Amino acid sequence: MTALMQSSAWNVLQTHQKEIAALHMRDLFAQEPDRFESFSLRCGEIFLDYSKNRITAQTLPLLFDLARAADVEGWRERMFTGEKINTSENRAVLHVALRNMSNQPIMVDGVDVMPQVQDVLERVGAFSHNVRNGTWRGFNGQRITDIVNIGIGGSNLGPMMVCEALSPYVSPDLKMHFVSNIDGTHIDETLAKLSPETALFIISSKTFTTQETMTNAAAVRDWFLAAPQTTEAAIAHHFVAVSTNVEAAIEFGITADNVFESWDWVGGRYSLWSATGLPIALAVGMDRFTELLAGAHEMDQHYRTAPLEQNMPVILAMLGVWYINFFAAESQAILPYDHHLEHFITYLQQTDMESNGKSVARDGAKVGHLTGPIIWGMPGSDGQHAFFQHLHQGTSLVPMDFLAPINLFKPTDHHHRILLANFFAQTEALMKGKTEQEARADLTAEGLRGERLESLLPYKIFAGNKPSNTILFDQLDPKNLGALIALYEHKIFVQSNIWNVNCFDQWGVELGKKLAGNILPELADDIPARGHDCSTTGLIAHYKARRHA
Ligand code: F6P
Protein backbone atom coordinates (compact mmCIF):
# COMPACT_ATOMS: atom_id res chain seq x y z
CA MET A 1 0.00 0.00 0.00
CA THR A 2 1.39 3.40 -0.92
CA ALA A 3 1.30 6.33 1.47
CA LEU A 4 -1.45 7.85 -0.67
CA MET A 5 -3.72 4.85 -0.21
CA GLN A 6 -3.09 4.90 3.52
CA SER A 7 -3.92 8.58 3.85
CA SER A 8 -7.11 9.54 5.61
CA ALA A 9 -8.16 11.64 2.59
CA TRP A 10 -8.04 8.52 0.41
CA ASN A 11 -9.96 6.41 2.93
CA VAL A 12 -12.65 9.02 3.35
CA LEU A 13 -13.07 9.14 -0.43
CA GLN A 14 -13.40 5.36 -0.57
CA THR A 15 -16.18 5.46 1.99
CA HIS A 16 -17.83 8.36 0.18
CA GLN A 17 -17.70 6.46 -3.11
CA LYS A 18 -19.63 3.57 -1.52
CA GLU A 19 -22.22 6.00 -0.23
CA ILE A 20 -22.86 7.67 -3.55
CA ALA A 21 -22.19 4.83 -6.01
CA ALA A 22 -25.88 3.99 -6.26
CA LEU A 23 -27.02 7.60 -6.75
CA HIS A 24 -28.22 8.52 -10.22
CA MET A 25 -27.34 11.91 -11.69
CA ARG A 26 -30.90 12.19 -13.00
CA ASP A 27 -32.11 12.30 -9.37
CA LEU A 28 -29.33 14.66 -8.31
CA PHE A 29 -30.37 17.10 -11.05
CA ALA A 30 -34.01 16.80 -9.99
CA GLN A 31 -33.09 17.57 -6.36
CA GLU A 32 -30.59 20.36 -7.12
CA PRO A 33 -31.97 22.96 -9.54
CA ASP A 34 -28.81 25.06 -9.18
CA ARG A 35 -26.45 22.18 -9.96
CA PHE A 36 -25.31 23.88 -13.20
CA GLU A 37 -24.40 27.12 -11.40
CA SER A 38 -22.71 25.23 -8.57
CA PHE A 39 -20.65 23.02 -10.85
CA SER A 40 -19.50 25.29 -13.66
CA LEU A 41 -16.68 27.75 -14.10
CA ARG A 42 -15.24 30.18 -16.63
CA CYS A 43 -11.64 31.13 -17.36
CA GLY A 44 -11.37 33.77 -20.09
CA GLU A 45 -13.45 32.39 -22.94
CA ILE A 46 -13.21 28.79 -21.77
CA PHE A 47 -16.32 27.57 -19.98
CA LEU A 48 -16.42 24.29 -18.07
CA ASP A 49 -19.63 22.59 -16.98
CA TYR A 50 -18.84 19.66 -14.68
CA SER A 51 -22.31 19.20 -13.27
CA LYS A 52 -22.88 15.96 -15.20
CA ASN A 53 -20.51 14.06 -12.94
CA ARG A 54 -21.22 11.49 -10.28
CA ILE A 55 -20.58 13.93 -7.47
CA THR A 56 -22.52 15.50 -4.65
CA ALA A 57 -21.77 18.69 -2.73
CA GLN A 58 -19.47 16.60 -0.49
CA THR A 59 -17.38 15.02 -3.23
CA LEU A 60 -15.19 17.86 -4.44
CA PRO A 61 -14.22 19.12 -0.97
CA LEU A 62 -13.02 15.58 -0.22
CA LEU A 63 -11.09 15.48 -3.50
CA PHE A 64 -9.52 18.85 -2.65
CA ASP A 65 -8.49 17.40 0.73
CA LEU A 66 -6.69 14.68 -1.21
CA ALA A 67 -5.10 17.32 -3.47
CA ARG A 68 -3.87 19.22 -0.43
CA ALA A 69 -2.57 16.03 1.18
CA ALA A 70 -0.60 15.40 -2.04
CA ASP A 71 0.74 18.98 -1.89
CA VAL A 72 -0.67 19.99 -5.27
CA GLU A 73 -0.11 23.65 -4.41
CA GLY A 74 3.53 23.01 -3.45
CA TRP A 75 4.25 21.11 -6.67
CA ARG A 76 2.67 23.89 -8.68
CA GLU A 77 4.99 26.46 -7.11
CA ARG A 78 8.00 24.19 -7.57
CA MET A 79 7.29 23.98 -11.28
CA PHE A 80 6.74 27.72 -11.78
CA THR A 81 9.89 28.59 -9.86
CA GLY A 82 12.18 26.36 -11.90
CA GLU A 83 12.90 23.63 -9.34
CA LYS A 84 14.27 20.43 -10.86
CA ILE A 85 11.05 18.48 -10.46
CA ASN A 86 11.94 16.10 -13.30
CA THR A 87 14.14 14.27 -10.83
CA SER A 88 14.99 11.17 -12.87
CA GLU A 89 16.53 13.44 -15.53
CA ASN A 90 17.59 16.17 -13.08
CA ARG A 91 15.78 18.88 -15.05
CA ALA A 92 13.54 21.83 -14.38
CA VAL A 93 10.19 21.82 -16.19
CA LEU A 94 9.46 25.20 -17.62
CA HIS A 95 7.09 25.14 -20.56
CA VAL A 96 5.37 27.95 -18.62
CA ALA A 97 8.48 30.11 -19.19
CA LEU A 98 8.00 29.79 -22.96
CA ARG A 99 4.74 31.74 -22.69
CA ASN A 100 5.59 33.87 -19.68
CA MET A 101 4.30 37.33 -20.50
CA SER A 102 4.54 38.67 -16.98
CA ASN A 103 7.96 40.35 -17.30
CA GLN A 104 8.98 38.34 -14.24
CA PRO A 105 12.27 36.43 -14.40
CA ILE A 106 12.24 32.63 -14.17
CA MET A 107 15.43 31.19 -12.78
CA VAL A 108 17.12 27.86 -13.49
CA ASP A 109 20.44 27.24 -11.72
CA GLY A 110 20.57 30.93 -10.80
CA VAL A 111 20.13 32.12 -14.41
CA ASP A 112 17.05 33.93 -15.70
CA VAL A 113 15.89 31.92 -18.74
CA MET A 114 13.59 34.63 -20.06
CA PRO A 115 16.20 36.50 -22.21
CA GLN A 116 17.02 33.22 -24.06
CA VAL A 117 13.34 32.46 -24.52
CA GLN A 118 12.69 35.92 -25.92
CA ASP A 119 15.75 35.76 -28.17
CA VAL A 120 14.65 32.49 -29.78
CA LEU A 121 11.07 33.74 -30.14
CA GLU A 122 12.38 36.86 -31.88
CA ARG A 123 14.39 34.68 -34.28
CA VAL A 124 11.33 32.51 -34.94
CA GLY A 125 9.33 35.69 -35.59
CA ALA A 126 11.89 37.21 -37.96
CA PHE A 127 12.43 33.99 -39.87
CA SER A 128 8.73 33.22 -40.29
CA HIS A 129 8.08 36.80 -41.34
CA ASN A 130 10.76 36.59 -44.03
CA VAL A 131 9.50 33.29 -45.40
CA ARG A 132 5.91 34.47 -45.40
CA ASN A 133 6.62 37.76 -47.16
CA GLY A 134 9.01 36.21 -49.68
CA THR A 135 12.22 37.85 -48.46
CA TRP A 136 13.58 34.40 -47.70
CA ARG A 137 13.82 32.51 -50.98
CA GLY A 138 15.03 29.20 -52.30
CA PHE A 139 18.50 28.72 -53.80
CA ASN A 140 17.45 29.91 -57.24
CA GLY A 141 15.37 32.84 -56.08
CA GLN A 142 11.94 31.23 -56.00
CA ARG A 143 9.51 31.78 -53.13
CA ILE A 144 8.99 29.04 -50.60
CA THR A 145 5.62 27.35 -51.14
CA ASP A 146 5.87 24.21 -48.97
CA ILE A 147 6.99 23.75 -45.36
CA VAL A 148 7.92 20.22 -44.31
CA ASN A 149 8.35 19.51 -40.60
CA ILE A 150 10.37 16.36 -40.01
CA GLY A 151 10.04 15.21 -36.42
CA ILE A 152 8.20 12.68 -34.29
CA GLY A 153 6.35 12.58 -30.95
CA GLY A 154 6.49 15.99 -29.33
CA SER A 155 8.47 17.36 -32.26
CA ASN A 156 5.52 16.59 -34.51
CA LEU A 157 2.19 16.19 -32.75
CA GLY A 158 1.99 19.63 -31.10
CA PRO A 159 2.77 21.76 -34.16
CA MET A 160 0.74 19.47 -36.43
CA MET A 161 -2.28 19.65 -34.11
CA VAL A 162 -2.09 23.45 -33.81
CA CYS A 163 -1.68 23.96 -37.58
CA GLU A 164 -4.74 21.79 -38.16
CA ALA A 165 -6.78 23.44 -35.41
CA LEU A 166 -5.96 26.90 -36.73
CA SER A 167 -6.31 25.98 -40.39
CA PRO A 168 -8.67 28.91 -41.11
CA TYR A 169 -5.74 31.18 -40.17
CA VAL A 170 -3.11 29.37 -42.24
CA SER A 171 -1.59 31.35 -45.10
CA PRO A 172 -2.95 30.11 -48.45
CA ASP A 173 0.55 30.69 -49.89
CA LEU A 174 2.16 27.98 -47.76
CA LYS A 175 1.33 24.29 -47.74
CA MET A 176 2.18 22.55 -44.50
CA HIS A 177 3.45 18.96 -44.38
CA PHE A 178 4.36 16.86 -41.35
CA VAL A 179 6.52 13.78 -41.82
CA SER A 180 7.06 11.63 -38.75
CA ASN A 181 6.81 7.95 -39.54
CA ILE A 182 9.79 5.73 -40.31
CA ASP A 183 7.47 3.96 -42.75
CA GLY A 184 9.15 5.16 -45.95
CA THR A 185 5.85 5.76 -47.71
CA HIS A 186 5.30 8.79 -45.49
CA ILE A 187 8.38 10.66 -46.72
CA ASP A 188 8.13 9.31 -50.29
CA GLU A 189 4.54 10.41 -50.73
CA THR A 190 5.35 13.84 -49.33
CA LEU A 191 8.45 14.38 -51.48
CA ALA A 192 6.48 13.37 -54.56
CA LYS A 193 4.40 16.53 -54.08
CA LEU A 194 7.38 18.87 -53.70
CA SER A 195 9.96 20.73 -55.73
CA PRO A 196 13.42 21.19 -54.15
CA GLU A 197 13.39 24.80 -55.37
CA THR A 198 10.39 25.82 -53.29
CA ALA A 199 10.38 23.49 -50.27
CA LEU A 200 11.67 24.36 -46.80
CA PHE A 201 12.53 21.53 -44.42
CA ILE A 202 12.49 21.89 -40.65
CA ILE A 203 14.42 19.09 -38.97
CA SER A 204 12.87 19.14 -35.52
CA SER A 205 14.37 16.92 -32.87
CA LYS A 206 15.15 17.88 -29.32
CA THR A 207 17.94 15.32 -29.13
CA PHE A 208 18.84 15.20 -32.84
CA THR A 209 19.37 11.47 -32.41
CA THR A 210 15.87 10.03 -32.87
CA GLN A 211 16.10 7.24 -35.43
CA GLU A 212 12.93 8.09 -37.35
CA THR A 213 13.75 11.78 -37.68
CA MET A 214 17.41 11.28 -38.52
CA THR A 215 16.56 8.65 -41.17
CA ASN A 216 13.89 10.84 -42.76
CA ALA A 217 16.13 13.92 -42.60
CA ALA A 218 18.98 12.08 -44.35
CA ALA A 219 16.57 10.82 -47.03
CA VAL A 220 15.36 14.36 -47.64
CA ARG A 221 18.90 15.72 -47.87
CA ASP A 222 19.80 13.00 -50.41
CA TRP A 223 16.65 13.77 -52.41
CA PHE A 224 17.48 17.47 -52.33
CA LEU A 225 21.10 17.06 -53.39
CA ALA A 226 20.14 14.62 -56.16
CA ALA A 227 18.07 17.30 -57.89
CA PRO A 228 19.66 19.11 -60.85
CA GLN A 229 21.22 22.48 -59.91
CA THR A 230 21.23 21.91 -56.14
CA THR A 231 24.54 22.04 -54.30
CA GLU A 232 25.69 21.73 -50.69
CA ALA A 233 25.53 25.54 -50.51
CA ALA A 234 21.84 25.44 -51.48
CA ILE A 235 21.08 23.54 -48.25
CA ALA A 236 21.31 26.81 -46.33
CA HIS A 237 18.24 28.09 -48.19
CA HIS A 238 16.11 25.01 -47.60
CA PHE A 239 17.04 23.35 -44.30
CA VAL A 240 16.62 24.64 -40.76
CA ALA A 241 16.71 22.76 -37.46
CA VAL A 242 15.13 22.95 -34.02
CA SER A 243 17.12 21.21 -31.30
CA THR A 244 18.88 21.33 -27.95
CA ASN A 245 21.74 19.54 -29.72
CA VAL A 246 23.00 22.44 -31.84
CA GLU A 247 26.33 20.71 -32.61
CA ALA A 248 24.63 17.65 -34.09
CA ALA A 249 22.41 19.85 -36.25
CA ILE A 250 25.46 21.67 -37.59
CA GLU A 251 27.23 18.37 -38.18
CA PHE A 252 24.21 17.21 -40.19
CA GLY A 253 24.93 20.13 -42.52
CA ILE A 254 22.64 22.85 -41.25
CA THR A 255 24.12 26.34 -41.08
CA ALA A 256 24.52 27.60 -37.50
CA ASP A 257 22.31 30.60 -38.31
CA ASN A 258 19.54 28.19 -39.28
CA VAL A 259 19.47 26.32 -35.98
CA PHE A 260 16.78 27.35 -33.49
CA GLU A 261 17.78 26.40 -29.99
CA SER A 262 15.72 24.55 -27.41
CA TRP A 263 16.58 23.65 -23.80
CA ASP A 264 16.61 20.57 -21.64
CA TRP A 265 13.97 22.11 -19.36
CA VAL A 266 11.40 21.85 -22.15
CA GLY A 267 9.93 18.36 -22.49
CA GLY A 268 9.24 17.22 -26.07
CA ARG A 269 5.50 16.86 -25.51
CA TYR A 270 5.37 20.29 -23.84
CA SER A 271 7.46 22.05 -26.50
CA LEU A 272 5.07 23.48 -29.08
CA TRP A 273 5.45 26.88 -27.38
CA SER A 274 9.19 26.95 -28.17
CA ALA A 275 10.97 26.93 -31.54
CA THR A 276 9.31 23.52 -32.01
CA GLY A 277 6.34 25.75 -32.86
CA LEU A 278 8.21 27.20 -35.86
CA PRO A 279 5.78 25.50 -38.30
CA ILE A 280 2.95 27.25 -36.44
CA ALA A 281 4.60 30.67 -36.77
CA LEU A 282 5.20 29.99 -40.46
CA ALA A 283 1.64 28.80 -41.02
CA VAL A 284 -0.32 31.45 -39.13
CA GLY A 285 2.24 34.23 -38.59
CA MET A 286 4.03 35.37 -35.45
CA ASP A 287 1.15 37.56 -34.24
CA ARG A 288 -1.16 34.56 -34.10
CA PHE A 289 1.56 32.43 -32.52
CA THR A 290 1.94 35.11 -29.85
CA GLU A 291 -1.83 34.98 -29.23
CA LEU A 292 -1.52 31.22 -28.73
CA LEU A 293 1.19 31.86 -26.11
CA ALA A 294 -0.99 34.56 -24.50
CA GLY A 295 -3.91 32.14 -24.16
CA ALA A 296 -1.68 29.58 -22.49
CA HIS A 297 -0.22 32.25 -20.20
CA GLU A 298 -3.72 33.27 -19.12
CA MET A 299 -4.46 29.66 -18.19
CA ASP A 300 -1.09 29.46 -16.39
CA GLN A 301 -2.02 32.49 -14.30
CA HIS A 302 -5.40 31.02 -13.48
CA TYR A 303 -3.84 27.67 -12.52
CA ARG A 304 -1.17 29.32 -10.40
CA THR A 305 -3.40 31.75 -8.52
CA ALA A 306 -6.96 30.40 -8.34
CA PRO A 307 -7.90 28.53 -5.17
CA LEU A 308 -8.23 24.79 -5.78
CA GLU A 309 -12.02 25.07 -5.47
CA GLN A 310 -12.17 27.42 -8.50
CA ASN A 311 -9.23 26.08 -10.42
CA MET A 312 -10.17 24.59 -13.77
CA PRO A 313 -7.14 22.31 -14.31
CA VAL A 314 -7.35 21.12 -10.69
CA ILE A 315 -11.09 20.39 -10.93
CA LEU A 316 -10.63 18.43 -14.17
CA ALA A 317 -7.69 16.56 -12.65
CA MET A 318 -9.51 15.62 -9.47
CA LEU A 319 -12.62 14.47 -11.33
CA GLY A 320 -10.31 12.25 -13.37
CA VAL A 321 -8.74 10.88 -10.18
CA TRP A 322 -12.25 10.28 -8.78
CA TYR A 323 -13.17 7.95 -11.65
CA ILE A 324 -9.76 6.36 -12.14
CA ASN A 325 -8.99 5.54 -8.54
CA PHE A 326 -12.43 5.18 -6.98
CA PHE A 327 -14.50 3.78 -9.87
CA ALA A 328 -11.61 1.92 -11.62
CA ALA A 329 -12.23 3.74 -14.91
CA GLU A 330 -9.21 3.01 -17.07
CA SER A 331 -9.85 5.26 -20.01
CA GLN A 332 -10.88 8.81 -20.80
CA ALA A 333 -12.65 9.80 -24.01
CA ILE A 334 -11.86 13.14 -25.64
CA LEU A 335 -14.76 14.16 -27.87
CA PRO A 336 -14.23 17.46 -29.69
CA TYR A 337 -17.18 18.61 -31.76
CA ASP A 338 -14.92 20.42 -34.19
CA HIS A 339 -13.52 18.88 -37.29
CA HIS A 340 -10.26 20.84 -36.84
CA LEU A 341 -9.56 19.20 -33.48
CA GLU A 342 -9.05 15.68 -34.79
CA HIS A 343 -5.34 15.78 -33.96
CA PHE A 344 -6.06 17.23 -30.54
CA ILE A 345 -6.92 13.70 -29.47
CA THR A 346 -3.66 12.23 -30.79
CA TYR A 347 -1.76 15.12 -29.26
CA LEU A 348 -3.36 14.46 -25.86
CA GLN A 349 -2.59 10.76 -26.18
CA GLN A 350 1.10 11.59 -26.10
CA THR A 351 0.84 14.41 -23.57
CA ASP A 352 -1.21 12.39 -21.11
CA MET A 353 -0.07 8.80 -21.71
CA GLU A 354 3.65 9.51 -22.06
CA SER A 355 3.40 11.70 -18.95
CA ASN A 356 1.28 9.61 -16.60
CA GLY A 357 1.53 6.12 -18.08
CA LYS A 358 3.74 5.22 -15.12
CA SER A 359 3.76 2.50 -12.49
CA VAL A 360 6.74 3.56 -10.39
CA ALA A 361 6.40 6.45 -7.95
CA ARG A 362 8.90 9.25 -7.37
CA ASP A 363 10.41 7.29 -4.49
CA GLY A 364 11.10 4.29 -6.74
CA ALA A 365 8.31 2.15 -5.24
CA LYS A 366 5.62 0.48 -7.34
CA VAL A 367 2.39 2.44 -7.22
CA GLY A 368 -0.47 0.37 -5.82
CA HIS A 369 -3.29 2.01 -7.77
CA LEU A 370 -4.23 3.01 -11.30
CA THR A 371 -2.47 6.03 -12.77
CA GLY A 372 -2.86 7.79 -16.13
CA PRO A 373 -5.84 6.81 -18.27
CA ILE A 374 -5.93 5.49 -21.81
CA ILE A 375 -6.85 8.51 -23.92
CA TRP A 376 -8.97 7.95 -26.97
CA GLY A 377 -11.72 9.59 -28.97
CA MET A 378 -12.91 10.97 -32.26
CA PRO A 379 -14.49 14.24 -33.32
CA GLY A 380 -18.26 14.48 -33.15
CA SER A 381 -20.53 13.71 -34.72
CA ASP A 382 -18.46 10.97 -36.45
CA GLY A 383 -17.78 9.29 -33.12
CA GLN A 384 -21.52 8.93 -32.51
CA HIS A 385 -21.67 6.54 -35.44
CA ALA A 386 -18.56 4.63 -34.39
CA PHE A 387 -18.34 3.92 -30.65
CA PHE A 388 -21.11 5.85 -28.88
CA GLN A 389 -23.18 2.66 -28.66
CA HIS A 390 -20.56 1.41 -26.18
CA LEU A 391 -20.63 4.69 -24.25
CA HIS A 392 -24.42 4.51 -23.92
CA GLN A 393 -25.00 0.82 -23.32
CA GLY A 394 -21.60 -0.86 -22.93
CA THR A 395 -20.29 -2.27 -19.67
CA SER A 396 -17.26 -0.05 -19.01
CA LEU A 397 -17.33 3.31 -17.29
CA VAL A 398 -15.73 5.89 -19.58
CA PRO A 399 -15.51 9.48 -18.32
CA MET A 400 -15.82 11.86 -21.27
CA ASP A 401 -14.76 15.38 -22.14
CA PHE A 402 -17.00 17.01 -24.73
CA LEU A 403 -15.46 20.12 -26.33
CA ALA A 404 -17.01 22.55 -28.82
CA PRO A 405 -16.63 26.09 -30.14
CA ILE A 406 -19.68 28.36 -29.84
CA ASN A 407 -18.85 30.36 -32.97
CA LEU A 408 -17.19 29.34 -36.17
CA PHE A 409 -14.53 31.20 -38.08
CA LYS A 410 -16.61 30.94 -41.24
CA PRO A 411 -20.34 30.87 -40.62
CA THR A 412 -21.88 27.55 -41.57
CA ASP A 413 -24.80 28.14 -39.26
CA HIS A 414 -27.08 25.40 -40.44
CA HIS A 415 -24.48 22.66 -40.04
CA HIS A 416 -23.12 24.09 -36.82
CA ARG A 417 -26.51 24.16 -35.13
CA ILE A 418 -27.09 20.53 -36.04
CA LEU A 419 -23.63 19.69 -34.74
CA LEU A 420 -24.26 21.49 -31.46
CA ALA A 421 -27.72 19.99 -31.10
CA ASN A 422 -26.00 16.60 -31.20
CA PHE A 423 -23.33 17.83 -28.78
CA PHE A 424 -25.86 18.96 -26.16
CA ALA A 425 -28.10 15.94 -26.74
CA GLN A 426 -25.34 13.42 -26.16
CA THR A 427 -24.28 14.63 -22.72
CA GLU A 428 -27.93 14.85 -21.67
CA ALA A 429 -28.72 11.36 -22.94
CA LEU A 430 -25.59 9.90 -21.37
CA MET A 431 -26.47 11.48 -18.05
CA LYS A 432 -30.21 10.78 -17.98
CA GLY A 433 -30.43 7.51 -19.83
CA LYS A 434 -33.91 6.11 -20.41
CA THR A 435 -35.87 4.28 -17.73
CA GLU A 436 -37.95 1.17 -18.30
CA GLN A 437 -41.07 3.24 -17.87
CA GLU A 438 -39.97 5.76 -20.50
CA ALA A 439 -38.89 3.03 -22.87
CA ARG A 440 -42.24 1.27 -22.45
CA ALA A 441 -44.11 4.50 -23.11
CA ASP A 442 -42.07 5.12 -26.29
CA LEU A 443 -42.69 1.63 -27.62
CA THR A 444 -46.38 1.90 -26.85
CA ALA A 445 -46.52 5.23 -28.67
CA GLU A 446 -44.92 3.50 -31.65
CA GLY A 447 -47.83 1.05 -31.61
CA LEU A 448 -46.05 -1.97 -30.12
CA ARG A 449 -47.95 -4.26 -27.77
CA GLY A 450 -47.67 -7.58 -25.97
CA GLU A 451 -44.82 -10.00 -26.59
CA ARG A 452 -43.12 -7.87 -29.25
CA LEU A 453 -43.01 -4.89 -26.87
CA GLU A 454 -41.73 -7.01 -23.96
CA SER A 455 -39.01 -8.62 -26.09
CA LEU A 456 -37.73 -5.26 -27.38
CA LEU A 457 -37.98 -3.45 -24.05
CA PRO A 458 -34.60 -4.46 -22.49
CA TYR A 459 -32.72 -3.13 -25.52
CA LYS A 460 -34.45 0.23 -25.32
CA ILE A 461 -33.44 0.95 -21.74
CA PHE A 462 -30.40 3.20 -21.17
CA ALA A 463 -28.83 3.07 -17.71
CA GLY A 464 -27.56 6.66 -17.98
CA ASN A 465 -25.41 8.04 -15.13
CA LYS A 466 -22.47 8.30 -17.57
CA PRO A 467 -20.19 11.15 -16.49
CA SER A 468 -19.03 13.92 -18.78
CA ASN A 469 -17.45 17.35 -18.67
CA THR A 470 -18.53 19.93 -21.22
CA ILE A 471 -16.00 22.50 -22.36
CA LEU A 472 -17.38 25.32 -24.50
CA PHE A 473 -15.16 28.07 -25.88
CA ASP A 474 -16.22 31.16 -27.80
CA GLN A 475 -14.21 30.31 -30.91
CA LEU A 476 -11.32 28.05 -31.88
CA ASP A 477 -8.92 30.97 -32.21
CA PRO A 478 -5.22 30.97 -31.26
CA LYS A 479 -5.81 32.40 -27.79
CA ASN A 480 -8.49 29.91 -26.81
CA LEU A 481 -6.53 27.03 -28.29
CA GLY A 482 -3.48 28.04 -26.23
CA ALA A 483 -5.65 28.13 -23.10
CA LEU A 484 -7.18 24.72 -23.87
CA ILE A 485 -3.82 23.05 -24.37
CA ALA A 486 -2.45 24.59 -21.17
CA LEU A 487 -5.59 23.45 -19.33
CA TYR A 488 -4.83 19.82 -20.20
CA GLU A 489 -1.08 20.19 -19.53
CA HIS A 490 -1.81 21.37 -15.99
CA LYS A 491 -4.54 18.78 -15.45
CA ILE A 492 -2.01 16.07 -16.27
CA PHE A 493 0.56 17.59 -13.90
CA VAL A 494 -1.93 17.79 -11.02
CA GLN A 495 -2.85 14.14 -11.51
CA SER A 496 0.83 13.21 -11.43
CA ASN A 497 1.09 15.03 -8.08
CA ILE A 498 -1.71 12.88 -6.68
CA TRP A 499 -0.11 9.67 -7.91
CA ASN A 500 3.38 10.86 -6.94
CA VAL A 501 4.78 9.99 -10.36
CA ASN A 502 7.20 12.07 -12.43
CA CYS A 503 5.14 13.06 -15.46
CA PHE A 504 8.13 14.56 -17.29
CA ASP A 505 10.27 11.52 -18.05
CA GLN A 506 9.48 8.68 -20.49
CA TRP A 507 11.77 5.73 -19.80
CA GLY A 508 9.07 3.37 -21.03
CA VAL A 509 9.77 4.14 -24.68
CA GLU A 510 13.43 3.11 -24.41
CA LEU A 511 13.14 -0.69 -24.36
CA GLY A 512 11.39 -1.04 -27.71
CA LYS A 513 13.87 1.39 -29.30
CA LYS A 514 16.82 -0.66 -28.01
CA LEU A 515 15.38 -3.98 -29.19
CA ALA A 516 14.66 -2.51 -32.64
CA GLY A 517 18.34 -1.52 -32.76
CA ASN A 518 19.34 -5.13 -32.02
CA ILE A 519 16.92 -6.61 -34.54
CA LEU A 520 17.74 -4.30 -37.46
CA PRO A 521 21.04 -6.04 -38.41
CA GLU A 522 19.37 -9.44 -38.00
CA LEU A 523 17.00 -8.62 -40.83
CA ALA A 524 19.91 -9.07 -43.28
CA ASP A 525 19.69 -12.42 -45.14
CA ASP A 526 22.96 -13.77 -43.78
CA ILE A 527 22.62 -12.80 -40.12
CA PRO A 528 20.52 -15.12 -37.96
CA ALA A 529 18.20 -13.75 -35.29
CA ARG A 530 19.51 -14.85 -31.91
CA GLY A 531 18.56 -14.51 -28.29
CA HIS A 532 14.85 -13.80 -28.76
CA ASP A 533 11.80 -15.70 -27.58
CA CYS A 534 10.55 -18.31 -30.05
CA SER A 535 7.67 -16.10 -31.22
CA THR A 536 9.96 -13.20 -32.20
CA THR A 537 12.53 -15.56 -33.76
CA GLY A 538 9.76 -17.35 -35.67
CA LEU A 539 8.25 -14.10 -36.93
CA ILE A 540 11.63 -12.80 -38.13
CA ALA A 541 12.27 -16.12 -39.91
CA HIS A 542 8.82 -16.04 -41.54
CA TYR A 543 9.44 -12.47 -42.71
CA LYS A 544 12.83 -13.37 -44.19
CA ALA A 545 11.47 -16.47 -45.93
CA ARG A 546 8.53 -14.62 -47.47
CA ARG A 547 9.96 -11.17 -48.25
CA HIS A 548 11.19 -12.05 -51.71
CA ALA A 549 8.26 -14.38 -52.38
O1 F6P B 1 8.72 8.96 -27.84
C1 F6P B 1 9.86 9.25 -27.10
C2 F6P B 1 10.34 10.65 -27.36
O2 F6P B 1 11.51 10.85 -26.62
C3 F6P B 1 9.30 11.72 -27.04
O3 F6P B 1 9.25 12.05 -25.72
C4 F6P B 1 9.76 12.82 -27.93
O4 F6P B 1 8.75 13.79 -28.08
C5 F6P B 1 10.07 12.06 -29.19
O5 F6P B 1 10.65 10.85 -28.73
C6 F6P B 1 10.97 12.76 -30.15
O6 F6P B 1 12.20 13.08 -29.57
P1 F6P B 1 13.18 14.13 -30.25
O7 F6P B 1 12.50 15.45 -30.31
O8 F6P B 1 14.40 14.14 -29.41
O9 F6P B 1 13.47 13.64 -31.66
TrEMBL record:
Keywords: Cytoplasm, Gluconeogenesis, Glycolysis, Isomerase. GO terms for molecular function: carbohydrate derivative binding; glucose-6-phosphate isomerase activity; monosaccharide binding. Its main location: cytoplasm. It catalyses: alpha-D-glucose 6-phosphate = beta-D-fructose 6-phosphate. Pathway: Carbohydrate biosynthesis; gluconeogenesis; Carbohydrate degradation; glycolysis; D-glyceraldehyde 3-phosphate and glycerone phosphate from D-glucose: step 2/4. It comes from the Bacteria. Belongs to the GPI family. The keyword Transmembrane helix does not apply. Transmembrane segments: none annotated. Its EC number is 5.3.1.9. The active site is at E354 (proton donor), H385, K513. It is an enzyme of class 5 (isomerase). This is Glucose-6-phosphate isomerase. One of its GO terms (biological process) is glucose 6-phosphate metabolic process. It comes from Magnetovibrio blakemorei. NCBIfam families: PRK00179.1. Pfam families: PGI.
